[in-house]
Amino acid sequence: MKKNLVLAALALAISMSIIAGTLAMYVVEIDDLAEGSLVAKEFILLEGGTDTFEDNVKIAPGETVDWTFSVRNYDGTLVSETAMDLVFSIDIAGITEDNAIEPLIFTVKDKDQTAISTETNTVENGVGTITFTDEFQLDDDGQEKTYTVHIEWPWETQGVDDTHYAGEGYGTLVKVSVTGTQQEAIETD
Predict the structure, then answer these.
(1) For 81, which DSSP code?
(2) Where are any strands of DSSP class E within 22-171?
(3) Is 60 inside any structural domain?
(4) What is the pTM of this model?
(5) Taking 70 as the threshold, does the pLDDT of residue 170 lie above it?
């Protein structure tokens, strides 16, 4: 029995040393190894400081009207932190249905008064839409883009009796809108 007790004690001692050796491990814990946060970039598109559009401006054959407007990508010290594509839409319509001044010719010009190539120019019989595109490149400084809508009533329009459009019964509305879309970002590390 002594022998069994010694063997049991020896088996217990061996198994305890094996368990203690194999179950022993090192534990190291590093709190807050790395930390970060994300903040959305500024995306700013506002009316610029220029808007010379007016209501009820009178025009007659042989005259022109120039209206200037601008957009910018900054607000005070905050500047848009993304490059953006701009799509401009100039809607032209009669003040009421079927009373637009049909002979009018519309041209969009840049700040240097150079005619802009438009994406579409569907103005026919004094109504329609003109669209064109531009962009704000990524820049730390605020940018402003200025455009002019040049409206001309030619002296003579083939097959058109200009006196037909005389008086308050005829008029044309011009409305400008712009959509800014973030350009696809370039991958950075």
Answers:
(1) S
(2) 46-51, 64-72, 74-75, 78-79, 84-94, 105-109, 120-121, 128-136, 144-152
(3) yes
(4) 0.79
(5) yes
